[in-house]
Amino acid sequence: MDLELRHLRILCAIADAGSVARAGVVLGYSQQALSSQLRRIEQYFGRDVFERSAAGVQPTRYGREILARARDIVARVDAIDVVPEADGMAGRVLRLAATNSPVLAGMTARIREEFPDLALTVSSVYASSETVEQLEKGDLDAAIAADYPGAELRHSEAIAHRGIFTEPTFVALPARHRLRRGLEVRLADLADEAWFLTPDDGAGWPGVFYGACEAAGFTPQKVHEYLGDRGQLQGMVAAGLGISPVQATFDPGAGVIVKALAGTPLWCRYVLAWRRDSMPESMAEALFAAAYAAHRELLARSPSFQAWASRTYTKTHP
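User: That's the sequence. What structure does it adopt?
Assistant: Structure tokens below.
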């Protein structure tokens, strides 16, 4: 194996998180995949970089030396200024679309700040399948789309994509719900509830939701469709009209609480997809970095996600 910059970023992320599994959530890897990557990295060095324990991981004496050098290299690379004229986008319009993703605002703000001379247009495209179709036709340069474990995004060789993050799906409940006091709720205990669901996104939703309900032993009998208006959803949930699956970074308004689902039966991955012939790799990297940073900022501000991550990974996934 050749040592690459991404391997150094993995080591830094694991050290920062204190856990392979928690680092996996941040980086968008499964625990198994990241553990495999770490084993290969340690095989490259010929020595353990981390000590494992029930509480997580910590660098070995040798690992501390590796991490000091890795952080220096990563910091130097991150400090390199990407000059807009050098990445082939000067004087062009970058056509970006996004599905129902909370990272869009933070991502576009970062891109506008880094590339003030770049003309950026942003459109909302709910269905990931429609996003792929527009990319294939050349109507878009890049997009944020969603997919699900076992139903990964499909497209032609003209399109490239990269996972930005994978996060658990939580549930929004009325603040006075009968299950409000639990740290998490079982999907099976919500069998008799009315649900608010977003429409078919062409990538597997709501099929993955119904599949999880079937695995939990029930079929939702009361389902209402809504089109992704968060304010409207919060109002309906607060009024006790139903409950809804929500993103891990969902910010509940007054009268609404967010709970993790026991066993984490639902996951969603957000990906950056782009046309190979109209998007230079350097620009794709800049978009990815902006989306990744925006998501990390949202996670840091999400009490429900922080509580879930601490409870789940600290206790069960060193």
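The chain has a mean pLDDT of 88.
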